[in-house]
Amino acid sequence: xxxxxxxxxxxxxxxxxxxxxxxxxxxxxxxxxxxxxxxxxxxxxxxxxxxxxxxxxxxxxxxxxxxxxxxxxxxxxxxxxxxxxxxxxxxxxxxxxxx
Length: 99
Known about the structure:
By secondary structure, this protein is an all-alpha fold. The protein contains 7 helices and no strands. It has helices at 5-10, 12-17, 21-40, 49-65, 69-82, 85-88, 95-98.
C-alpha cells in the first residue's frame, strides 16, 4: 500500500531497534510521498498531522545515524514548513511538546 504513509512507516520502528538506519531512512522518505499528497489537499490540521510529522522525525533519526546531515536538514525544513502553528498551539497533549 504505497499510498498509505502510515503503513509504509510502521516497519521502521523495527529498523530503528535493530540499527538498520538505512532502511529506516529510505522507508520514511517513501512514507512522506503520500503524506505530501494529503497536504496538497489543503488540510494540514487533521488527525493525520501527527503521523506525518512522526514520519519526518524518523527519517531525520535514520539520517542522523548515517551522518547524512544534508538529509536531516532537508527533513527539518520540511517539518517546519508543513507543520501549522495552530497544530502546535493545541493545549490538550500539549502538541508542541508531542510534535
